[in-house]
Amino acid sequence: MAATVDAKTVIQSVDPKRLAGSALVGTLTLEAILLFSAGDNAFTARQLPSHVLAVIVGTLGGWIFELFRQLLSATSNSLTELGRLNASLGALTERIDYQETALGMLTSCPRHNDALSKLIRSSMSDNFRNIPYVGPAAYLGYLRSAVEHADGYEGVQRNTLRWYQEGAATAYLQELKSKRMKFKTRLFVIDDDEAEQMERDLADQDLLRFYWEHTGDVASYWITVSDYRRNYPALIIPRDFALYDRTLLISYDEGRQILSFDVLDPGQSPQGQIFRTLNELTRHQDAAFRPVPRSAGVE
Q1: For the segment 121-152, what is each residue's pLDDT rounded down to a tens digit?
Q2: Is residue 166 part of a domain?
Q3: C-alpha span between 221 and 101 (Å, rounded)
Q4: DSSP for 239-264?
Q5: Which residue segment(s) compose the domain that 131 sits in?
Q6: Do the strands 183-190 and 152-157 form a parallel or antiparallel pair, or are they unpaired?
Q7: How many helices (H) does the chain have, and how many strands (E)?
Q8: What is the pTM for the complete model shown?
Q9: Are residues 243 and 197 in the same domain?
Q10: DSSP E strands, 96-254
Q11: CB atoms within 10 A of CB 99
Q12: Are residues 61 and 129 in the same domain?
């Protein structure tokens, strides 16, 4: 839609009644001035040309005023329309950028197109890469979609071991267990106020048996947040996340129920750096990361 002011359109849009009214007001104004200045001589023959001129000038002045008013109105409308056009253009640009980013994700990580497609569709109603109002069960459902095509898994769990038993995560653990992969690693990063609960979980033989029977060959470690900060200050304090093939990231803020996802550079991501550090240090048995025991009382 054009946002320019067309003179012909402005003239055609002028209301004849308003134009006549403006002309009348202009004429009466000049007549009043003439009467005031001429006094008793205002109605003499000598003043007739002045009256005619007052009518002409007053009419033209009224018309010019009305046209100018209409022009201002048309200009204001055009500016409003231009603002709407700019907003529409901005929305279109955002949509194009969104589509390009989504396509880039899909083409750069073809192995996980199925999981990515579900994540992208779910995020379209909110900010891209974020899905609101996701409960733990739905989060685990997205993880299961990713496991189906994954060849490697690395994950951070911010809850204690008991969460897997109480949080109905059995199906996810079993699916991860049954999928053959090149590597599987899980790190529990436990808040200091939950450290005692984690110790109790690790001393619970039934809970340990449940965990290992359902999780299988997932190398599992744990660390408190204070130990993590003290020993590895260069690493980010992560929230819950799963990283598949070191590229597909699915992270979760359980308190706010927001799921986020992204496709990462395998060698550059801060999430990947956590596990590069973990693998390097545990290989030399010099780490604050403690293994999750298979039996109570055994490290």
Answers
A1: 766 555 567 888 889 999 999 999 999 999 99
A2: yes
A3: 35
A4: -EEEEETTTEEEEEETTTTEEEEEE-
A5: 110-291
A6: parallel
A7: 11, 8
A8: 0.61
A9: yes
A10: 130-132, 152-157, 183-190, 219-224, 240-244, 248-253
A11: 12
A12: no
